[in-house]
Specification:
eight-stranded parallel barrel, disordered N terminus, globular, binds coenzyme A, 12 helices, alpha/beta, binds magnesium ion
Amino acid sequence: MSQSSSSRPARLRRSVLSVPAINRRALEKLASLDCDAVIFDLEDSVSPEKKAEARENLRAFFASSPLSAKERIIRINALSSNFGAEDLALVVELEPDAVLLPKVDEPQDVMLVSDRLAEADAPENLRIWAMIETPRGILNAASIAEAGRTSGSRLDCFVVGLNDLRKETGVLPQPGRAYLVPWLMQVVLAVSAYGLEAIDSVFNDFKDMDALDAECAQGITMGFSGKMLIHPSQIEAANRHFGPDEAAVAEAEAIISAFAEPGAADLNVVNLGGRMMERLHLVQAKRLVHKARLITQRHRPSTSSG
Ligand code: COA
Ligand code: MG
């Protein structure tokens, strides 16, 4: 049976900030930042000589700062590298919300980690996220998504990595990401088919807010749930673009009201100001209103600190 993304609980993944685990100063900043999720990176942003120190930083950080209102994801090195096994052991020890696997090429990459987590008795709610950032990862996105759903069901989310993909393919950075759009949409299609979510790639130029705005607007239009970020200055734009705006929330509430009318109980379509609304729009509307509520809760002073 198909797993539609609309059947999953709505959660906030508008802004997913990557932090090099080696950078203690940046780690200390996290509690005060308004991102929905944090990726603690042990991979590309940490040099081989510093991997052990980066793991120690995470141990200390998880012991002192629970960051309970944010989703916490640890990005590990490939299991085939010298660092992957120790990274995964750390994940089992710290029990973040998810482990993010770099350069996932094929379903086996996810299944291997799924098996290792099961062997280590990791809790079921410790999920797997996958970086889709290689040519094979893009080609196999659908089979990775499908296999991840069936093998222990830990796979939860794809994150697109365009820096690696550009390096591997020779596609140059361009406004509008013209030649990359078909590949990005292939990832969105794959997650939609199997009830997962996709996070759009980082935008490197963290001083160029206009270009970031444009890329966030493009990302939400393409169907991504949020954006991976590299700098705190990017959080506001991602939250704004990937969160529903007031007009969208008002429309969603109008759809919910229309279907709640006594006469609509046995109707599958209603007329909302001259537009046809089906029950599928009601499902979408409820998700959107739920997301808006999560955002309101997050911004209440008592729950905003980490
Ligand atoms: N998370 C949390 N805090 C961050 C941060 C991040 N990703 N990036 C920067 N900061 C903090 C800095 O520590 C600095 O704090 P301070 O004012 O207390 O000193 C403040 O934000 C301003 O930073 P700035 O001086 O503008 O940038 P920088 O030179 O310190 O760092 C980067 C620039 C790109 C090196 C840094 O943002 C970074 O490492 N980003 C993440 C890279 C990454 O994760 N790559 C892998 C995935 S692609
Ligand atoms: Mg990468």
